[in-house]
Specification:
Blueprint: E1 2-8, H1 23-37, E2 42-46, H2 52-66, E3 73-85, E4 88-92, H3 101-104, E5 105-107, H4 108-118, E6 122-130, H5 140-153, E7 159-164, H6 179-189, E8 193-196, H7 197-210, E9 217-221, E10 227-231, H8 233-243, H9 256-277, H10 282-295, H11 303-306, E11 309-316, H12 326-334, E12 342-358, H13 367-378, E13 386-403, E14 411-418, E15 426-434, E16 438-447, E17 465-470, H14 474-500
Parallel strand pairs: 1-2, 1-3, 3-6, 6-7
Antiparallel strand pairs: 3-4, 4-5, 7-9, 8-10, 11-14, 12-13, 14-15, 15-16, 16-17
Helix pairs in contact: 1-8, 2-4, 6-7, 6-8, 10-14
Length: about 500
Amino acid sequence: MNLAIIIGVENYENDDLVNLKACDNDAELFKNVITDIKVIDDAVYLNKSPRAYEAKKQISDFVEKHKNTDIEELIFYFSGHGSRSEEDFFYVMSDFKESKKESTGLRNTELDGLIRTLKPKLTVKIIDACFSGTQYIKSDTNTRIDFEKSAKENKLNDIYFWFSSRENQSSLAGAEFSKFTESIFTALLNLKDEVRYRDVMAYVADDLGAAGLPKPVFITQADNVEKFGTITDNTHQIILKAFGLDAKPEEVELTEARVDEKHESSLLSLVTGKSESEFCTEKDLVDRLKLIKDKFSEINWPDDLTKIYKISTHELSRSFDVPNSKKIGLWLEEKATKEYFSTPSYTEKSYEVEEYRALPQKPTRSAYASIARMSRWLNDADDTEYKLETVTKTKKVISGFENTYKNENNILKVTFEPKFISIKPICIFVVNIFSKTELAIHFSYEFLKYTDWETISNPLCDKWHTKSSKVKAEESVIQIVSEMISEISSWAVENIRKSLEK
């Protein structure tokens, strides 16, 4: 028996998640195609943006129904937003909230546990996960590790996992499909008869590479002989109709012109999709910087600290007021390809080296000396004398950083003024480095020392920490600032207790 679970989530109740036009189309076409190319004995089809409780209940009931059945193959397909948290992947349902991800999302490990109950001989996951929402996959490596680990722990032996971590893209001829899913169907248009999973994987990798898109993540633990299905003229017709392309039964293969049209559409889709999902406006950026400042206000710190400190937030307009800013400059040099609105600043540094310097030749009027010099010149001899000398040179070295976009909230200084004599002041520096897509928050925190009854030492910022997000992802920015406040609060409370309990 072959089973399928197909989910498309297009609309979201949370305003922080962008609605995705393509996902209903993705899921519907996948259902129509998979049931055409192979026998699917039973399926759960969750379209029209299901809520988490509904989706998990239907999947659980489906597993309960078939747990004592001999399952040859289980296919799981998902198109929608995804989230990665605590070293696991979450399938984001329409009511998803980051603060309630367990009840409003579906953990990948939870799904694998349900699949294990069915004991399928072959497990296939095709995941077109869009990340224009709150959380982002950091790398292909993270994705691979998370999915392989879960599969191993849940004893899923023969597997094909196809995963796209890119956001949705519109497609050719006005019909909208996610780019990864569209590429799978385009592969089927160029294939016929029995087709292996491996054949489709190879086509998709080449197709996305030719369009200038990152290749998806493929995880395979199988024999590479397993069949995706049998492709017929009818399969081609189903796909062409969904793509908005008319074709007679005998003309189902894409012509060269249509392939060109597809790639032109892919470029436009890439540009418009990225513009909408990843690139921020100036207003987006200004709003995020203000949000960060507001989050550091006194009301957001725990009572343990606000009762013993007066907490104030200040904007700094000059980057050279930031201690140890050289480390941020060095970080910017390493990240030069990101095109941040900040650059390293340089200063000239003197250094000494020992070099041999040529000594001037002594003048002579002797006829014999003139003849001797002429002889050495004719014989290509060098009679120059050299002396080892210490020479001072200069070179440019990174001294700090400069902001090329000025905003009052680029740099923040948060001060903790003690209300009691038994505790030391705390100083926090927050430096926001950003581009049209990326936000990297650099922060440093430390206790300051009293040098007399009223005077305190200057901050050193010996250690800088960095947290990153997409500028567009407001909820992600809120989350990482909350993590910063939690980290600093725990550090402060723990060290104050240690110092007073000695």
